[in-house]
Amino acid sequence: PEMTARTIDADGYYHTGDAFEIADVNGEKKYYKYVGRIKDIINRGGMKISSEEVESLLQAHPAVAEVAVVPYPDDILGEKVCAVVVARPGQTVTLDDLNKLLKEKGVAHFKYPEKIMFVDALPRNPVGKILKRDLRERVRTADIKSG
Predict the structure, then answer these.
(1) Which residues contact 118 (CB under 8 A, 6 or more apart)?
(2) Element (H or E) spanning 7, and its range?
(3) Do 30 and 15 meet the contact criterion of CB atoms below 8 Å apart?
(4) CA triple 86-42-142, angle to 5 deg
(5) pLDDT digits (tens, 9 = 90+) for 115-146
(6) Can you name the residues that pair with 42 across neighbouring β-strands?
(7) Who's near 105: CB < 8 A, 6+ residues apart?
(8) pTM above 0.85, yes or no
């Protein structure tokens, strides 16, 4: 009963944890567009950023072996974007390099990471899923420099 109460609201709607947008086509609401998991959405000053979207673009950088994008707290905007990067052996990458790639891809500026943190490996659970909660906590408590 407790689990049911957390996932099915008083009106009988089932909450999956997925985030969707109602997409417009010529000013008319036409279809739902999947944008990611609610816990994987960064709210930067009211603008919603899909971590998955930014990660998939940053993964294309030749010096990036793996990347995860997580929020970090900001007093004014609520959250900002941090890229947690595992660099390829012998490669280096900077925040400017990543943001240059996003600019080339035509990504809106508010989605750019404002901090970068390097790790040897992304934390994973036994089935290989990245533990974003662990990364969010590490980024929140780390002294990472911007830019």
Answers:
(1) 84, 85, 86, 87
(2) helix 2-7
(3) no
(4) 50
(5) 999 999 999 988 888 999 999 999 988 876 55
(6) 49
(7) 57
(8) no
Q: What is the pLDDT of residues 68-126, one digit of tens each?
A: 999 999 999 999 999 999 999 999 999 999 999 999 999 999 999 999 999 999 999 88
| SS3 label, residue 18 | strand
Contacts of 82 (CB under 8 A, 6+ apart): 69, 70, 71, 72, 113, 114, 115, 116, 117, 139, 144
- Nearest to 117, CA basis, from 140, 139, 100: 139
| Cα pseudo-dihedral 25, 31, 35, 36, rounded to 10 | 180
Residue 22 amino acid letter: I
Using CB atoms within 10 Å of the CB of residue 96, give its burial: 0 to 12 exposed, 13 to 18 middle, 19+ buried. Answer: exposed
DSSP label of 144: P
CA 60 to chain centre: 15
Q: pLDDT: is 6 or 99 the higher one? A: 99
B/e letters for 132-147, b = 16+ CB within 10 Å, e = fewer, are beebbebbeeeebeee
